[in-house]
Amino acid sequence: MGFLGIILALTGAALSVTLTCIGSAKGVGMTGEASAPVMIDDPSKFSKLLILQLMPGTQGLYGLVVTVMVMLNIGLLGGSPDLSLTEGLLYFFACMPIAVGGLISALMQARVTVTGVNIVAQKPSESGKAIVSATLVEFYALLCFIASMLMVLNINRLGL
Amino acid sequence: MAGMTFNPTRMELTRLKKRLTTARRGHKLLKDKRDELMRQFMEAISENKRLRVALEDKIRSANRHMSLARSMIRDEVIATSLLFPKQSMSLTIEEKNIMSVRVPQFTAQFRSSDPGDIYSYGFAFTNAELDDTIASISDIMPDIIRLAELEKSCQLMASEIEKTRRRVNALEHVMIPKYQEAIRFITMKLDESERSAITRLMKVKDMMIEKAITERQNKEKS
Amino acid sequence: MKGKVSESHYAYSVTAARIMQRALLSDADYSLLISAPDAIAALAVLSSKGWKTPADISLIPQMLDDAMQEVWDFLVEFAPDINIFKPFILRNDYHNLKAGLKCSLSELQVDRYFIRPALIPRKLMKEAFFENHFSLLPEPFSTVLKQAYDALSETRDGQLADIIIDRAAIDGMNGAANEVREPLVRHIVDTLCALSNIKIAFRSAMLGKNKDFLNAAIGNCSSLDRNSLIESSAKGFNELFRYLKTTRYAAQVDILKTSPIDFERHFEDRILSSLEPIRFEALGANPLIAFFLFKEAEIKNIRLILAGKLAQSSQEEIRQRLRRIYV
After folding, report:
1. Would the pTM of this model clear 0.90, i.e. be above it?
2. What is the rounded average pLDDT of the residues C50-79?
3. Scanning A80, B46, B54, B130, which has its CA 20 to 30 A from the CA of C67?
């Protein structure tokens, strides 16, 4: 019985880190690819480009944090995991906001950061604005992360 | 007289007189010819000038078209387009006689009668500017042929005028005075010899009279 | 149909193009170029903008060729899918066919008639014309060439050979574009083909060419109905204009009526202005295509300015003919 609950909870945790990391990897990769020619052209722009490149990477981190929290809560890390099916399902769904939201926002953010790289290439003085617009996308990833976190942390209190 | 040797005979005199009249007649004729040639030449030269000015205008405009076409299409494309002409022209040359000057007359024949055949290229990647260039150059063609004809005629006529003028001058200033001088000289010489003959005759007569007188006196004495 | 390359693959090439795009001449640069007193001064302006200008004005065509070749080499190296640019470059190959054919039949040195960049390497092209080994060339070039060769050697009619190759070029561009999944490429190539077709139709109507000629000359293009175009232009101007009024190009008909040269420029301007909104896109092939076409237009502009300077055209005249480039 408890087995199935753990499987579900872990599936959620795994998805949350996998999907967000896929999104982040793709995003960082794309931005990195886009920034390479700019760096060749003018290496001094590296710092600006690095910020842009890092931005789609945060989602992966959020995913990992959620995963770790789930694992702690269900006692997988140094405890005796015992989970009902309902609890398992709850954990699974609690992971979904960051898993799906993180993936999509990372991809979307990558588009913005690639555009940002183009702005840095063309008008270096406007690079601040590029970072701001990428941050706006980050905001929604953050919302997903907060939602997932709140859910994961509070499932225990239900006492199911 | 310098450079001229002749016998101061009556026969020579008649011969020279005949020559003088021929020279005078020739002089008049040549002068007429020169004047007429001059008139024709002036006409030709003014048409030549008019045509040349007009032609140079047209060539300038053709060049403008060409430079515009070249600014739009790459040189290689234009060169390739014009590599194989569709239309061709052949020229027949006839001769015309103006005051015994043989001037050429050109007639152009075109291989094809279709005016569109001056364009030797496809229309897909060339533009109307190139068409204009080709059309304007082709328009110039008859004028160029006419101008060539006129210019050659003018040249020939000019050299003929020059020749005639020199002949007229030679007759007027050299031949005729020379003949006149010779005639005068012979006349003088003849007159001189006539006079000396008369003198001689008179002298002979005197001598004969003297001789007769002496004979008569001797007869009377004896 | 080949699969479309995912737009994220363009990230690198687009940024690289963006950096090169920075070197495109601005309106101010054009003003400077146009107000230069002569070609040498204009070259100096170009050289200050980073162009590798020659010292001798006779090498200007070479400089422009090098510039275009550079763009092409860049695309070959960095574009994830070079096929999308092939339709644009194909016409150079077809031009080279024409040049090679005419030169080999009139025993001229072909080198100065070839243009770059081209898909078929120059060496192969020359080999194909040496002793007429047309089969060395890939299809469909060899078939077209054979046809044009037969026509030209039989009739000595340069126009006939030209229209055979031009038709193949239009069809080839159209076909190559239809194999590409980029709607922008298809749209632009289609517009270019339509322009060529309308040019043929209009000038044929002007010269009263018959239907056979039109049939041989006009190629396929999806925005124009080939048969209607042939039928209408065989009947003369008015019929042609009436037909064009029913097509996508209705707005341009009036320009065509007054000035065929303005018409052509208008067409190209339309293509360039359609690129304006997409030039800042950061992903996908569009910005790369825009860069390619802008660069092509820029080289055209420079050729125009320098030719104008050499011919001592007035500044106004040059300005009028300039293509608008959005940078």
Report:
1. no
2. 88
3. B130
